[in-house]
Amino acid sequence: MAVLTDGGVNRRSFSLRSALDQARDDVDSAIARDPAVDSRLEMVLASPGLHAIWTHRVSHSMWRRGGRWKLPARMLSQVSRAVTGVEIHPGAQIGKRFFIDHGMGVVIGETAEIGDDVMMYNGVNLGGRTLAKVKRHPTLGDGVTVGAGARILGPVTVGAGSAVGANAVVVKDVPAQSTAVGVPAVVRPTRPAVERDDYVDPAIYI
């Protein structure tokens, strides 16, 4: 039996349409960030990062139902981990147009929160620093870029538009529009190119 909204729109159809629109956004965003890909078909078939994200969206919806759905959600996330090399706990909250390049070795913990338009490279760990059942994983704002091998640990916040360099270890908050590099990470503002003669794209640290 069709389930209708007050306006008579089939909710299942609406949900499917929304999922397809989101998947299309994911693919377009991934292509824009990956110069090695020549077509949408290649991206859809050969991107483990996209496969991991799409599987997570299903497992997350199951996780939110609670009760008996939590174990199947965890099992689905483990299947995704085995296939893609990306481990995302079904409890993690992930925004729109998230892209994981290469993917292998990425770990995203249960209470992690990721905003829109975030890009992450391989080997990244959004981990915790406590065994207590509290908010123990990082929050990444919109437009954050996280370089290969970076570790962001604990309930820290990386502000919108910031970049975390390759192999950096972040254990403190990173303000918006900043670059964090080193072990432990040193944070400095990322100023617009018009304000400096020696401007370097933050991606050089990634």
Could you list some keywords that capture this structure?
206 residues; alpha/beta; UDP N-Acetylglucosamine Acyltransferase, domain 1; 6-stranded mixed beta sheet; 5-stranded parallel beta sheet; 4 helices; globular; disordered N terminus
Provide an overview of this structure:
It contains 4 helices and 15 strands. The chain is globular. The protein has 206 residues and is an alpha/beta fold. It has a single domain, classed as Hexapeptide repeat proteins (UDP N-Acetylglucosamine Acyltransferase, domain 1, 3 Solenoid), CATH 2.160.10.10. Helix content is 31%, strand content 17%. Helix 3 packs antiparallel against helix 4 (70-84). Strand 14 (178-181) and strand 15 (186-189) form a beta hairpin. The strands form 3 sheets. A 6-stranded mixed beta sheet has the order 3-6-9-12-14-15. A 5-stranded parallel beta sheet has the order 1-4-7-10-13.
Structural class designation: alpha/beta
CATH structural class = Mainly Beta
Elements, N to C (H/E): HHHHEEEEEEEEEEEEEEE
Strand line-up in the sheet with most strands: 3-6-9-12-14-15
The residue-averaged pLDDT reads 87
Number of domains: 1
Number of strands: 15
The largest sheet is: 6 strands, mixed
Task: Assign the CATH topology.
Answer: UDP N-Acetylglucosamine Acyltransferase, domain 1
The second-level CATH architecture is 3 Solenoid
Fourth CATH level, the homologous superfamily: Hexapeptide repeat proteins
Proportion of residues in helical segments: 25-40%
Beta-strand percent range: 15-25%
The Rg value, from CA coordinates, equals: 18 Å
Topology, please?
Elements: H1 11-33, H2 40-46, H3 48-65, H4 70-84, E1 87-88, E2 93-94, E3 99-100, E4 107-108, E5 113-114, E6 119-120, E7 125-127, E8 139-140, E9 145-146, E10 151-153, E11 157-158, E12 163-164, E13 169-170, E14 178-181, E15 186-189
Parallel strand pairs: 1-4, 2-5, 3-6, 4-7, 5-8, 6-9, 7-10, 8-11, 9-12, 10-13, 12-14
Antiparallel strand pairs: 14-15
